Amino acid sequence: MTKTDIIETAFNVWGREFYLNTSLSRIASELKVCKPALYRHFRNKQTLLEAMTKHFFDDFIASIKINYENALKTENKAEGIFMIVRGTTEYFAKNVNYFVFCMMNIYNREMQRISFVKEFKDRGLSLDFFQPLITRLIFATLIFHIAGFHKKEKSFVNTPGETEISNIINLICDITREGLGYNKEVIDTLDYEKLESQIYKTVMIIEDDALLKAVAGAVAKAGPWEASMEQVARRSGLSKSSLYCHFKNKQDMLHQLFMTESMRIIDFARQGMRQSDIPHEQLYLGIYFIVQYLRSKPDILVAMDWIRTRKLDLGSKGEKHNEQIAENLRIFDEINIKPHHNNACPFNKRKVSPWIFFLILSTLMIKNPKQEMEEVPDIDIRSLFRFLALGIRSVTTDIPIRRED
Question: Which conformational region is residue 154 in: left (phi greater than 0), alpha (psi within -120 to 50 degrees), or beta?
């Protein structure tokens, strides 16, 4: 048994059970060795994680390095972006365990965050190819659709075929290129300040449910796995036994929190969308109202952020509950949006709202080096909207839209 054997097995265990804390015991069991045998190579889980991180970046960057180098040489910035997107998508589509490891390191707040910029720089590549926000939005779009791809293909038990991989690559490139396919000239004329001012004309007072507020605070601080009934009891001033008058168990408690807040978000977004009957204005108003709701409720923002990586453990009915949450968040289906699609792998309307919500959370959950939440300015929300509406046509003029409106 070598270090490489242990690292590769750790990736397999991590990928298969990413919603749990990967333990050395699980890895030893997978290798059919005793746990102390691992200590000859790694003194603890942290040293193994460091080795996995190095292994991942060595492999990932070696795989896409030619794409980056070619992208930097091309005079067409848009074409360079697609080289990078294509190479990255292909890598994660073919390596589900590495994808899960990368996703968890980016979005898991309990883990030490990895600096992609530093890791790339240490291996001779720069990430200064595009402005940081657009880079984050492109990567979040890739993450969202690759996660759906692996779920659909059941990649942990079935290796995706070349045709399926080619289809998802083309789909992600199309979405990155065009977004929802709006007319750029129309989007360029949007009066953001006028639309944003309408939120202050909207009278909406939502009284927080004190008990659910305590649940949200516990989830925001500890995460959904570690958040306990005891923590909620302390925050709410109730006894643990009293909580069972409101919730059947921890899973029911979490479910009620997410379902209640998702419906409140929808109600608030609808108030914004009703301020206009023009589709692209409705889209921005819906996005902006959701942003304002989450800005005003930081604990809810952090709690809802767990949905991004579908890590919420709601027991045996968790999958059904997650699907129900996703259905409830399909607020943007009400707008007359005609999303781009290709014949092989269509981007249907059912995916629009979850993708938008995913990007909103990805934008708002920016942290500084001290791991504190940053205040995201309105200009970033406008850039988010433009990316959703236009893809990278929002920041470059050398990409023509490929389909007719």
Answer: left
CA distances to 122, 290, 366, 373, 374 from 370, rounded to whole Å, are 22, 26, 11, 9, 10
Please report, for residues 146, 301, 315, 350, 354, the alpha-carbon distance to residue 329 in angstroms, rounded to integers and kept in the order given: 20, 14, 21, 10, 7
Rounded-to-integer distance, Cα 139 and Cα 323, Å: 23
> How many helices and strands in the chain, by DSSP H and E?
20, 0
Task: Specify which residues 373 forms β-bridges with.
Answer: 367
Q: What count of other Cβ atoms lies within 10 Å of the Cβ of residue 35?
A: 14
- Which tokens hold the place of 351? 């995916």
Domains and CATH numbers, the chain: 3-178 (1.10.357.10), 184-337 (1.10.357.10)
Task: Report the alpha-carbon distance of residue 335 to residue 280 in Å, rounded.
Answer: 8
What's the pLDDT tens digit per position in 137-165?
998 899 889 988 998 898 888 889 999 99
> Which tens digit of pLDDT belongs to each residue from 187-219?
999 999 999 987 766 645 566 788 999 998 988
Task: Please tell me the pTM assigned to this model.
Answer: 0.84
DSSP state of 403: S
Task: Say if CB 308 and CB 107 are below 8 A apart.
Answer: yes
* 9 CB-side CA count, 13 A: 19
